[in-house]
Task: inverse folding
């Protein structure tokens, strides 16, 4: 696998998946074949989040964690200020109350409302950054098989506790159901630079097509919710893994400037679409009245804004360092 | 073949551009209701337009619920004698859903309560509806999940829009527990 080299490009694709899920207005009539395909594609855009978790876990596994606090601080410094700025803007423009702001900023809202919390993915990601070095240090004492067994037992226990014991108090199932994809990322990081293109393509074909059928049945037509409310995310694992192999091969040795730039602005893209995406779509649609045109203008606007903000963030960071 | 592919893709896109599909309503364009008595022969899509009259709802598309998507939108299984329409926001980033159900069986009180009990304001994954509320008349049930202001406006319009006798409004459920407490104190 060559994920360390293709990471940015895969991130760009994942970000587009998420943006399509959030902002795409279905163009075709839902009764038509094209409409059904379109609805399916839009509805499974959530797998973009799984791609991000996989990539994060993969790269974290290969990161230097000699000093746990230094590692956590470095990650927080990169992500939390952006999160906080967007929360402040949300407060200023009236998207959240003052109490909601504080609750969101300290991640309390994420624990309480899970996926319904503003920019929930960021607290989830930061939670992973905090837990990762400690889990790694504890589990490193055991053999790989024991590590896997312990991880699965802890995950299942936590999931049952949240689903049945803490229902109504804590709702982080949206994150807990992503732990298997995180574990896959950790496991596959061992194979960085080892698998040939042919092997990855065979794996991609073997996993992706049956995976799509599984997602269609249990993640789209009839969402699986037993034994956990959000278990349908796990059904998407073969499809996600297949897609990762496919994208890893497709982007190997290929550099597309626009994709590379977008890969650096994924954090901003996510934040912008959640902050103003909904209003933007409504305004553009009320002017154009044409769905496809609205989609095009929305995506171009959101992507350009994200890139501009990303440049600004990097400029500020570089100036501080200098 | 390679040259044909982009042309075919472009054609598909253009078809999309000119494909009107189901009617999309932008809130400011909803038809004006007749003063007090709404004609009873209005379609459910037209009733939805009346319910949305003068309320700042996001752009929506009224569509009939099928056996397949009935439970996902209405939070009760489909049964004989029920006709449902949904008018959700066009995109997933907007937590807004309006469902109007017509029942020939006259069990609307039960339906409204069941819908309210089952309704999931987190069904959008990354956003959640602030308030969930249901109301019913003799033959109609409405479910609204949206911001507090929109829910209030739509529920207010419900009785006059369906023109089906007095409407009973069930207690709203708020995602923010503080809001429920403050309402309780105000009561």
Result:
């Amino acid at each position: 696998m060559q994920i360390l080299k293709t990471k940015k490009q895969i991130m760009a694709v994942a970000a587009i998946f998420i943006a399509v899920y959030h902002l795409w207005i279905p163009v075709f009539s839902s009764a038509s074949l094209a409409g059904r395909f379109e609805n399916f594609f839009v509805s499974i855009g959530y797998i973009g989040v799984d791609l991000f978790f996989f990539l994060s876990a993969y790269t974290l596994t290969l990161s230097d964690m000699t000093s746990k606090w230094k590692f956590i601080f470095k990650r927080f410094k990169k992500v939390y200020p952006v999160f906080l700025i967007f929360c402040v803007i949300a407060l200023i423009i009236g998207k959240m109350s003052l109490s909601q702001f504080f609750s969101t900023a300290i991640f309390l809202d994420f624990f309480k409302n899970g996926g319904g919390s503003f920019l929930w993915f960021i607290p989830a990601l930061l939670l992973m950054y905090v837990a990762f070095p400690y889990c790694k240090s504890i589990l490193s004492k055991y053999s790989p098989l024991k590590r896997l067994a312990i991880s699965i037992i802890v995950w299942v226990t936590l999931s049952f506790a949240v689903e049945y014991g803490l229902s109504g108090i804590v709702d982080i199932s949206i994150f807990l159901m992503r732990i298997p994809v995180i574990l896959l990322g950790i496991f596959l990081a061992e194979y960085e630079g080892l698998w040939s293109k042919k092997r990855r393509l065979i794996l991609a074909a073997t996993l992706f097509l049956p995976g799509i059928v599984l997602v269609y049945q249990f993640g789209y037509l009839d969402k699986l919710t037993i034994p956990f409310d959000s278990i349908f995310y796990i059904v998407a694992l073969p499809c996600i893994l297949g897609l990762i192999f496919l994208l890893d091969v497709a982007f190997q040795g290929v550099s597309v400037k626009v994709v590379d730039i977008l890969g650096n602005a994924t954090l901003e893209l996510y934040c912008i679409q959640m902050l103003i995406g909904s209003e933007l779509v409504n305004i553009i649609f009320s002017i154009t009245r044409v769905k496809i045109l609205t989609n095009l203008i929305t995506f171009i606007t959101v992507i350009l804004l994200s890139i501009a903000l990303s440049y600004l963030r990097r400029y500020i960071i570089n100036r501080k360092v200098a | 073949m390679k040259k044909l592919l982009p042309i075919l893709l472009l054609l598909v896109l253009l078809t999309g551009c000119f494909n009107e599909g189901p009617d999309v309503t932008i809130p400011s364009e909803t038809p004006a209701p007749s003063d007090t008595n709404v004609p009873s022969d209005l379609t459910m899509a037209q009733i939805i337009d009346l319910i949305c009259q003068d309320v700042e709802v996001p752009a929506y598309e009224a569509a009939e619920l099928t056996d397949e998507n009935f439970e996902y939108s209405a939070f009760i299984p489909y049964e004989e004698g029920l006709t449902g329409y949904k008018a959700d926001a066009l995109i997933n980033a907007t937590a807004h859903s309006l469902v109007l159900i017509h029942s020939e069986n006259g069990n609307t009180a039960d339906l409204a309560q069941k819908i309210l009990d089952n309704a999931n304001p987190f069904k959008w994954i990354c956003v959640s509806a602030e308030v969930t509320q249901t109301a019913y008349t003799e033959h109609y049930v409405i479910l609204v999940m949206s911001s507090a202001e929109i829910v209030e406006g739509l529920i207010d319009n419900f009785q006059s829009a369906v023109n089906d006798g007095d409407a009973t409004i069930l207690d709203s459920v708020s995602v923010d527990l503080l809001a429920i407490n403050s309402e309780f104190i105000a009561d």
